[in-house]
Backbone:
């Protein structure tokens, strides 16, 4: 897979934008600086917008309220959370009224209740499933109860498997890190509802009626891999978890269609990356790969240099994306 060119703004090519939240629209309590204006411009161009998040810690209503406070207008129906996807998975396997042990916050409990299931916090023989979601207030008691229920044979569902979550302090443990506690103690791996699995993005596509969505995120292993799984275009932004080195070293199923500094990239054109023999060009930058070692020359927007570097390294099987030459090339680009 290679980066795509776009001679028109992406908001004219794609009819809907499925936007991740953490690290894309906001980080903790604050908006990513470009995000409110970018969402407004995409909507003004006619693109529909849905916010698709692996975070199961808050309700769609609370997330919509937070977005509106940050200058990003949103209604609860614009927000698709992994809590909803996880509750739906349990509801597909067990009848209404079943007891479900919730290892997570109020938002996950509410999603379970909306599915007609009965959320509980203590294991008993009537518990048919354990559903686990992100909580900044995760307790040992909940992890213990979830472990006991899963060992007993309860159906185990995780809202998502992100190892980390961005915060105002930096990267902190995400739901996937707490999932490992129960998985390691029981030997049972959960069924995962969130990205990169299909349910979340499918719900976003359904709500927006999209035929050609753009999936935007800051993580390769969830947002971009999820886009690949759907055969949809994915745009990686550099405002959250993924670094330029991560993009360079991405396996094929996690390579984005577009690279952008931030969410404003969905309102811009994207330059072509041209390969000619051992040389790869993008705007004012040229990357030459010799013996698997990339060398960067040129000037201009260093994101164009990263575009050329990624395509050159992805295309050359002998290139080491994390080796000294690649690191030197990134240093030449200012990373």
Residues:
């Amino acid at each position: 897979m290679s980066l795509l060119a776009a001679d028109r703004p992406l908001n004219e090519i794609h009819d809907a934008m499925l936007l991740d939240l953490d690290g894309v629209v906001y980080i903790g309590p604050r908006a990513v600086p470009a995000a409110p204006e970018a969402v407004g411009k995409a909507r003004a161009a006619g693109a529909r917008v849905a916010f698709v998040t692996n975070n199961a810690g808050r309700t769609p209503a609370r997330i919509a309220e937070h977005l509106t406070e940050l200058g990003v207008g949103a209604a609860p129906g614009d927000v698709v959370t992994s809590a909803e996807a996880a509750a739906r998975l349990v509801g597909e396997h067990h009848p209404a009224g079943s007891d479900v042990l919730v290892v997570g916050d109020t938002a996950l409990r509410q999603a379970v209740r909306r599915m007609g299931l009965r959320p509980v916090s203590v294991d008993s023989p009537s518990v048919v499933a354990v559903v686990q979601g992100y909580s900044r207030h995760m307790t040992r008691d909940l992890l213990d109860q979830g472990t006991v229920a899963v060992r007993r044979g309860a159906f185990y569902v995780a809202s998502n498997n992100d190892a980390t979550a961005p915060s105002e302090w930096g990267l902190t443990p995400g739901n996937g890190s707490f999932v490992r506690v129960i998985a390691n103690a029981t030997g049972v791996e959960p069924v995962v509802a969130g990205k990169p699995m299909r349910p979340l993005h499918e719900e976003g596509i359904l709500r927006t009626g999209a035929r050609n969505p753009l999936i935007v995120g800051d993580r390769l292993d969830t947002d971009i891999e999820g886009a690949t799984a759907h055969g949809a275009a994915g745009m990686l932004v550099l405002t959250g978890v993924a670094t330029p080195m991560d993009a360079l070293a991405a396996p094929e199923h996690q390579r984005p269609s577009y690279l952008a500094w931030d969410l404003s990239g969905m309102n811009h054109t994207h330059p072509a990356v041209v390969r000619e023999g051992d040389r790869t060009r993008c705007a004012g930058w040229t990357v030459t790969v010799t013996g698997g070692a990339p060398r960067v020359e040129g000037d201009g927007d260093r994101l164009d240099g990263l575009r050329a570097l990624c395509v050159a390294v992805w295309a050359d099987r002998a290139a080491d994306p994390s080796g000294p030459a690649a690191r030197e090339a990134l240093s030449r680009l200012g990373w």
User: Anything to note?
Assistant: The radius of gyration is 21 Å. The chain has a mean pLDDT of 95. The chain has three domains: 10-54+196-267, 83-192, 273-333.
